Structure formats: structure tokens, C-alpha cells
Amino acid sequence: MSRLALLLLALAVAGCVPRGAPVQPSPHYVVGEPYQAGGIWRYPREQFTYADAGLAVVADRAAGLTADGEAFDQGGLAAAHRTLQLPALARVTNLENGRAVLVRVNDRGPDNPGRLIAVTRRAAELLGASQSTPFQVRVQVMEAESRQLASGMAVAAPLQVAVAPRAGVKEETLAPPTGATSSGRGRVAAAFPSAPTTPQAAAPDSVPLRLPEQVWQMWAEPGTLYVECGTFARQQYAAIMQARLADLGAQVSTDYNAPRDAAYRVRIGPLGDTAAADATLDRALRAGVSDARIVVDGR
């Protein structure tokens, strides 16, 4: 009888919880285990000095929780990446028009292996990017702030962001982007000195869950699309990969600025447009090159 009473009590308690009740956010730091998406294995890891250039898209998902337990919000400045630690703070620059914003990387994705990052609709809007087609971006992790997030510090105080250096920078306030209030959000630098200035975060006490809307205007640097199939420390290994993909026109090049273990890279291209890059990437993946990806090279 006591067991039956306990069972009835449990059923009664369960009946008091409404079905479909929203799951409460529980933000936390996570790197995560290797996982498979679209038949390709991904290996998350901490990358505090990460920098890369590729194609971005707008995140195509509904409300819910992100991979690190935050509430997904298309109106915030956030992004999804396949392997970065979560959360991380990153600068995303639209290479096609020079606009840059800071985003909170808090989710996994995008699913398309040819896309580097997926940003919210609001981030794409501030970047002056299309909501429906891929656009060229550079993604750079803000090291100090991302390490701060990893250390477990509170996520509450306003983020103070300044353009550095300030001396010699001429600015004016332009019309704010659509939806921005007149409180100073959406300020765009109108002119810069001889070299483009990049936004630098000023070592805040903590990084907020919802970033302030601030836009930087740099010089546009649209690049050329390639499919990168691998990087190697020795030329002989790069030559093997090149021979494997000879039918796709793969070539070996040297990057003297790359780390020693990535001095030689195998690429296919240049490719004329996104459609050509996607088709070439698909062929490389079907050839068994699971690390193949679309990159943007501005040189």
C-alpha cells in the first residue's frame, strides 16, 4: 500500500507540471566531446587565438537553448561555431563591406560544412549582410575576454569596448542601423588613419550575456574562394594529398606566416563563386578528405 501511495503521489506531482513548459537557461562553459554532423567528425577544443576567414550564414533555428545552455535569441549578437569553446567572444568582420561586430559564440553549427560560422539575424543586419545568402567574413577570437569566460567569472557587467588607438581617428555618428535605439548604439567610425583600426575589448570585469550593439567600419577586403584540403609540416605529405586530388586541380602552396606544422597547404582554386566552391567542396568530401573546407584568401 505504501508503494502504491508513493506511485500515486509521484503521478500527481508530475501532472502539476505543464506539458511543453520552457526549459530554463543554465549558461555554463563547455568544450565538449567529439561529435559527428553530416557524416563528418568534429573535434571541439580551446582556441583562444583562433582566426580564420570563410563564409558566414544566418542561423536557421528556432528558440530554445544553445549548446552552452543559454537562451537562443535572434535579436542578440551571438554566433554558432563547430569547434570553438563555448562561450567565446569573437570579432566578426564582413569582408565585403568592412563592417565588424563583437559576437558571443555560444552554440554549435552551422550544419553546412562549407560555412565557417552562423550568426543571428541581428548580427547579420548590423554587418550589412544578406539574410539569405552566404557572405565573406573574418572571425577572430578575443583572447583575454574568452579566457575570462573560460575561468568561470560572472557574466553580468556591461562590456566596455573601445576603438584603439583613439588618437588620430576621425569619427561621426551615422544613422543607426534599423532597430537600434538613439542611445548611441550602432556608432560607426567614418574615417581611419593609414591602416584600418580594429576593435579592442578593454579588459572588463565580466562579459555580459547580451552584448551591446556596436559597429566598426573598416576597409572592405573581399577575397577569393578556395577549398582547403589540408595543411602539412612537410612538403612530401602535401604532395601526396595533391596527387590524391589531382583530378580536382589541387595545388600545393607555402605560407611563411603559418605555424611550422602548417607550412604547406593543399588548395583547390581560385573558385569563381559560392556555387563553384560548394560543388568543389562536395567533391573533395566525397573523395574522403573530411577536413576539406571553404576559405577566403584576400591576397
Question: Would you kindly provide a written description of the structure presented here, covering whatever features stand out?
Answer:
With 299 residues, the chain is α+β, with helices and mostly antiparallel strands. It contains five helices and 15 strands. It is globular, with a radius of gyration of 22 Å.
Reading the helices and strands in chain order gives: HEEEEEEEHEHEEEEHEEHE
CATH fold field value of the largest domain: Barwin-like endoglucanases
Fraction of residues in H or I helices: 10-25%
Q: What is the CATH class of the largest domain?
A: Mainly Beta
Beta-sheet strand percentage? 25-35%
Q: What does this entry show, briefly?
A:
This protein is α+β, with helices and mostly antiparallel strands and 299 residues long. 17% of the residues lie in helices and 26% in strands. It has helices at 2-15, 121-126, 143-150, 235-244, 274-286; strands spanning 35-37, 40-42, 51-58, 78-80, 88-94, 99-107, 117-119, 135-141, 161-163, 199-201, 216-217, 224-232, 251-254, 264-271, 293-297.
